[in-house]
Amino acid sequence: MFARSLQQSQRLVLAPLLVGLIALGGVTPVAAKRSAGEPAVAIDPVRLGEQQTQLYRVGALITASRGPCADILAIVTLPLDCPWQSVRVVNEDFSPEVADVAYRDLPGGGVRQMMVSIPRLPAGVEARALVTCEVTIHLVNPPEEAAAALLSIPRRPPTALKRFVGPSPMIEARNSRLRRLAESVLADAESVGKEPDDWGRVEALYEHVLSTIDYAEGPDTSALTTLDDGIADCHGRSALFVGLCRAIGVPARLVWVHDHCYPEFWLERATGGDEFGGEWFPAESAGTPAFGGMPIARTVLQRGDSFRVPERPRERLRYASDYLTGRPLPGGGKPRVKYVREIVEE
Length: 346
What we know:
Mean pLDDT: 87
Largest sheet: 4 strands, antiparallel
Radius of gyration: 22 Å
CATH architecture of the largest domain: Sandwich
Oligomer: single chain
Number of helices: 6
Helix content: 10-25%
Number of domains: 2
Number of strands: 14
């Protein structure tokens, strides 16, 4: 049985559900190292600003309210380590019904998940699997003008980033309308004064989205729907900006944070000689504009907008949502779940 501390997980004895997942290469024990799935280029330390720390609790409360059930597998998204955010587990709260816990990263990176196995849950009993993380977040400053001028749109994106230049759920990157709009915006930018550098070209796309798409709370919309409606929330604005970036070959994706999402884009920079590296740059999609930096400390949950989850093989997901499976025992029903995702006030 899993020891109650994740730090003492040297001898995990995994329940059948998790054993099967490991056999398929879909899950790694808690102590295993993660793979980022993309070029490992650290953010320029000069661009890291003020540091803030939050306690963030995630998990699931699972109840056999309809009668006894078994073979429960709960999947919960955890805060994500990234160049400007570090995550440390500081407290675990697992009820006795929880047999095993393991972590995994989805292929390609961008999502960290906790896998919770409950072999049997008696009628009326609530199982608890909660993890509190200490999340240290740096504000991110945009690059200096001289440094930004050296960045360029990659002629050939690294293999691991090619999925961020094509279409994904709700981002119709290959649609001709987006391509024509992006070209029109860049042509307008070049007609007023000197021709912009690649940083300026991406910034022109960003400014066009913010100036032409009104902000309003509402349902998530795709890039094309946002373009048609002329109004959207943070998701719609982000999707349109990402779609325009991809239409001209700039790798871009969504970043999902607590109660919000925003876009980020990738530009290439020379690292010496004939070698090139690159970096992701965030942009704010609501409130005060911020291009190339992030002035607000938010807990990052996922980076990306096209995920494959082993338990849902036929679906391509823009967000790897929390997930629960379980089977009713005779006289019982399927379990009910309440997911927990909250900032903990100290």
